[in-house]
Structures are given as C-alpha cells and as structure tokens.
Amino acid sequence: MILFLTIVSGVAWTVVYVEAIRLGLRERTYAIPAAALALNFAWEAIYASRSVATGISAQGIFNILWGLADIAIVYTFLRFGRAELPVWITRPLFVGWAVLLGATSFAVQLLFVAQFGWDDATKYAAFLQNLLMSGLFIAMFVARGGGRGQSLVIAVSKWIGTLAPTIVYGGFGNSALILGLGALCSVFDLAYIALLWRARRTATV
C-alpha cells in the first residue's frame, strides 16, 4: 500500500509539473507561485542529489524527475515573471530578487537537514512548503483576477499528490504533525479547486 501511494503521489506531482511547463510556455507566465517554486526546486535538487548518492528508490526516481521538470518551470519564471510585477521593478531588481529567493530556499532546506536529520527533514520541509504552496495558489488566483496560468489539472493533481503522502507519513507513519499539515493542505487545495471550477463555469456561461 505504501509503495502504491508513493507512486500515486509521484505520478500526480509529475502531472502538476508537466502541466505547469505547458501552461507557462503557452500563456507566457509561470504556473507555480514564486516562493513555493523556489522551495520546491531547492528541495528537489538536494534530495534528488542525495538519491543518486545513496541509492535509487521509487521516491528517488520521482525526485530526479521533479528536479529536471523544475528547471523548465524556473525558466518560465525567469523568462516571464518580470511582467507580473509593478513597472518600477527593473529587470536587474527582478533577477536580484530571484537569486535571493533561490539562495534563501536552499539555505532553509539545509537548515531543516541540520535540525532534523535527512529522514525527518525531507518530510517536514515538504509538507510545510506544500501548505505554503496551497495558500499561494489562492493568492495567485486573486492577484491575477482569475485562472490565467492556472488549471484544474494542476489543482486536482496537487491535491491528490499531497493527500497520498499524508496517508503514508501521517497515517501509517503515525505523525500528528504531518497528518495535520496534510489535512490543512487539503482544505486549501479544495478551496482552490472550487475557485478555479467557479471561474471556469462563469467564463462559459
């Protein structure tokens, strides 16, 4: 069951990333909120590298795939993200902010490792940044005034991709922290799905 749920999560998140790349290139924007994208890229770069060094598992294969996909999503952010910001933010300021965001994200991930060790850090960091992402997706919807650069495919896949490891690490792993964070992710993810569904339905009326 744990392997099955790991694969479900891996496939669902892979769908999120592929759809984010497709939407970003098609709509000339980025489809994952900047702060969450930076944390995800740092997480996946660190743990994909560790997977290669310590031995490949099912989760390790997905970490590598996600890390490669994140490179393309980061490209869409760097290529199109400046247009999402106020006009007074120059290109050099945008690049400087992006570098700072990326460096901070790597520092945060490594601090989790230093504090909790490799096994716990991977889970705690993942669920905390996942909850942040859930909230930031709603903020993105509000900031853009609708679903531009977003899709129900991403929203539903993210929800499923988070729910599966919540069961694994929160339920089977008997972690109240992860179970609680995963439940909160579901609350925000379902709210986001409802927002996108309502916007889509309104647009077709």
Topology:
Elements: H1 2-27, H2 34-54, H3 58-80, H4 91-143, H5 152-172, H6 176-204
Describe the overall structure.
The chain is mainly α and 205 residues long. The protein has one domain. 84% of the residues lie in helices and 0% in strands. The protein has six helices and no strands. The protein has helices spanning 2-27, 34-54, 58-80, 91-143, 152-172, 176-204. The longest helix has 53 residues, at 91-143. The mean pLDDT is 94. GO terms for molecular function: lyase activity.
**Count of domains:** 1
Please describe the biggest sheet, giving its number of strands, its sense, and whether it closes into a barrel. Answer: none
Mean pLDDT across residues = 94
- Number of beta strands: 0
Structural class: mainly alpha
Summarize the structure.
By secondary structure, this protein is mainly α. The chain contains 6 helices and no strands. α1 (2-27) packs parallel to α3 and α1 runs antiparallel to α5.
